[in-house]
Amino acid sequence: MGKRLYVGSLPFQTTEAELQEIFAACGKVESAKVIMDKETGRSKGFGFVEMGTDEEAKAAIAKMNGSAVGDRKIVVNEARPMEERKPGGGNFGNRPGGGFRGNRDRGDGGGFGGGGKREGGWGGGDSRRRSGGGGNRKNSDEGHGNRW
User: How far apart are CA 64 and CA 140, in angstroms?
Assistant: First the structure.
C-alpha cells in the first residue's frame, strides 16, 4: 500500500492546513494538498494527503473514511497513480479541428464543429452529399458573433 491518500467530498472551504491537521491524528503527515480550479481559484472538493508510513496510511483510511468534516462525509482511500491523458477532442484553445458530425447512420446530417484555430463553426447538411457542414462563424453575414 502506498502512503499517498485520496480525500474526496471535502467541504469547499477546507484549507491545506486544516486537511493536514485533520490527518495528523492518524500519524505524521508528510504533505496535504487541496486541489484548486485553475480558472476560479476555488477548491474542487478533493485533495491528497501523504502519510509518513504505510501503517499510518492504513490507519488514516480506517479512521477517516466516512467521517464528518464540516457538514460532509469524506471519502478516503489509497491514491491511484495519475493516468496519462491524451490530447484531443473539441476545439479547445488554439487546437485546430474537433467538432461533432451528427449521426451519419441515421442520416440526420446535423452537427457542429471543426474549423481552424479560431473559426469553429456550426455544421449541418449531409457529409455524403457534401452539403452544409463546418462554416465560419467569424465571417457570417449576420455579424452577430456567437449567439446561442
Answer: 57
Instruction: State which of 77-86, 102-111, 117-126, 134-143 shows the largest mean pLDDT.
Output: 77-86
Could you write out the DSSP letters of every residue in 76-108? EEEPPPPPPPPP-SS--TT-----B---TTTT-
Q: Which CATH number fits domain 4-78: 3.30.70.330, 2.40.10.10, 3.30.420.40, 3.40.50.720?
A: 3.30.70.330
In contact, 14 and 86? CB cutoff 8 Å: no
Domain parsing of the chain, residue ranges: 4-78, 89-136
Give mean pLDDT, residues 102-124: 55
Contacts of 36 (CB under 8 A, 6+ apart): 42, 43, 44
List, for residues 33-52, the tens digit of each pLDDT value.
999 999 999 999 999 999 99
Note whether 12 and 43 are within 8 A (CB). Answer: yes
